[in-house]
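Hey, quick one: can you model this chain's 3D structure?
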Amino acid sequence: MSIAVSKELFAPVAPGVELCYQTFGAPEGDPLVLVMGLGGPMTWWDADFCTMLAEAGFFVVRYDNRDTGRSTRVKGRVSRSALVKSFLGRGGRVPYTLDDMAADAFGLMDHLGWDSAHIAGVSMGGMIVQTMAINQPTRIRSVTSIMSTLGKRTVGWQHPSLLPMLLANRGAGREAYVASSAKMWKVIGSPGFPQTDEQVRARAEETFDRGASASGVMRQMLAILNQPNRSHALSGLRMPAAVVHGSADKMVHVSGGRATARAIPGAELLVIDGMGHDMPVELFETFVDIIRRTADRSSQASEPGRSA
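Sure thing. Here's the predicted structure for all 308 residues.
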């Protein structure tokens, strides 16, 4: 079966914000929005994975978040001291919030003419899709949150060794970016599904060439560090939900996934042994299966966001 893939397109989603996006599959498929994590362009949703989702009956859209890839860069300088203060729970004003990023995704849905959709997000993207479900539940058919957490500071913590790497100055230029990025992925990747040095380097090169922004990553980090605790709000959700997490995740401890699944009534939890903070190709079928299974729990006869 041949899967239709659009060229990269652009959608105005908020004042001064335009998102770059791409679709996979047929418009009559079930609408599915894929939301990527911190500093990740839409190409981190592998094209083969998107094709598999389209073959499973979805009309898929992947996109670059604001401050990522080819989407709009937002103004606002973030100092490392501001990040440290936010990490310690003493944050102040931020250039934008996860609510703003959730609104971007709804703006993309509006642009596509989608009244409602299934949503899946990775890491920061998981935080965004949770926020979408809370803010506009009637527009959400199902939620899949992958290697993410719910904003509660006592769960989903990072391994202490990662903070210096996140705050370190990468240096200027392509090679410096690729070297530091490859080092990070070697630390946070899946020990049970290791990637070769060539694979890690190729992804870093593609990310830089697409448009890496160190200041954009800082602004996204500030939005993450200042997110609210969504535990209570998530308890009011009634759409089908699934939570996927790796047992070996150093970026977001598995406790974050477990807490998210406990907070959402009826959520399915899948913890994968040997999975870190990435999406290994060996697990593509597993991810597709749980996204499809969760979507299928959403009855067409029921209102999105309500009990099926």
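One thing worth noting: The first strand starts at residue 9 and ends at 14.
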